[in-house]
Amino acid sequence: MALRSLDNALPMSLERPKKVAKVAAPPPAAKSPAPSKLPRDVRTNNENTPPSAPRMEQSVEYVASEDLKPLSVPDTRMAVLLDELSSKDWTQVCEALNDLRRMALHHSSLLIPSLGNVTEVIVRAMKSPRSALCKTSIMASADIFHCFGHHLLFTTEKNSFGQLLLQLLLKASQDKRFVCDEAEKALEKMAASVSPLPLLKELQSYVRHANPRVRAKAAVAMSKCVSKMGIEVMKGFGLATLLRVAAELLSDRLPEAREAARSIIISVYREFSNDSNIKDNDESAASESWQNFCASNLPPIAAHSVAKIVSL
Question: What is the C-alpha to C-alpha distance for residues 235 and 181, in angstroms, rounded to an integer?
Fold first, then answer.
């Protein structure tokens, strides 16, 4: 059998070429800036240089009043103290505030001429977002109250003292416990040291503050102030006014304010019942006189609530 010519053979099927995935070309490398244009910390932080140690937070020491020693040269220190209290370096302000406390506790006569400026500086420090500076300024205010309480309202502008009082009430109302506790201590020192009659007039507006916590703290300060007042001082402020303030606070949202209101009512009743006009009468006569007093100065429901406090 004759062989078929290869030229007449069927053509072989060609193999389809395989698709090759397209690979995007890498972008050109970014040109790195010259070392002289890099920030100092980036310039030094390369693979051959160990990373620098993390920056440590500066700490502030809180010194108790009894641990503050007298200054060796108070006159010289006083000459630069106000400038340091206005420094932009908060740690320097903290140190100056502690020296201010030393000045108040041991060299108070040097501080009296600058008391108004000092109050403004303390208020400014209390507004600082740095808790350490805020707490140190609150501690300074407590020492100022302790040393100059009885004439503080007469040696500073009324607005300065009002701002100081407002800041203390706000700090006592916040959630940072260590700041809040310090502010409450300062308010207690204020109530014990500042003349009660002018202080009551300052506190009166804050027991109607829109912030319920501020209202409560002002009510507590007012109750502590009233508790050490005699009948004549109460009359100077107004017994009926005190009674109306307490009656409003009895229905406050916060228990702290309501408890302060009860304390005010009890203090007023104590002095009212010991007043010379009714002290010789029996207990029933004093109770009747108290109820009549409440009824004549308060709405019926409020008068009943106030009268009931002292009968419990």
Answer: 33
Question: How many other β-carbons are positioned within 10 Å of the β-carbon of residue 243?
Answer: 23
Mean of pLDDT values over 78-107: 94
Q: Between helices 90-106 and 131-155, what is the axis angle to 10°?
A: 40
Q: Which of 78, 75, 165 is nearest to 119 (CA)?
A: 165
Q: Yes or no: say if 163 and 204 are a contact pair by the CB < 8 Å rule.
A: no
Backbone angles phi, psi at 228, to 5 degrees: -105, 15
Contact (CB, 8 A) for 245 and 300: no
- Report the distance separating Cα 101 and Cα 190, nearest Å: 15
pTM score above 0.85? no
Q: Answer whether 199's CB lies under 8 Å from 173's CB.
A: no
Q: What pLDDT, on a 0 to 100 scale, did the predictor assign at position 283?
A: 67
Report the distance separating Cα 95 and Cα 58, nearest Å: 13
**For 195-240, how does the pLDDT look when each residue is reduced to its tens digit (9 = 90+)?**
889 899 999 999 999 999 999 999 999 999 999 899 999 999 999 9
Q: Within 13 Å of residue 38, how many CA atoms lie on the same side as its CB?
A: 12
User: Per-residue pLDDT averaged across 262-272, rounded?
Assistant: 93
d(CA 134, CA 182): 10
Contact between 305 and 250 (Cβ < 8 Å) = yes
**Other residues' Cβ atoms within 10 Å of the Cβ of residue 134:** 23
Helix (H, G, I), strand (E, B) or coil at 259: helix
Record the tokens describing residue 174, joined without a space. Answer: 């916040």
In the prediction, which pLDDT does 46 show? 47
Q: Are 283 and 261 in contact (CB under 8 A)?
A: no
Say how far apart CA 246 and CA 200 lie, in whole Å. 13
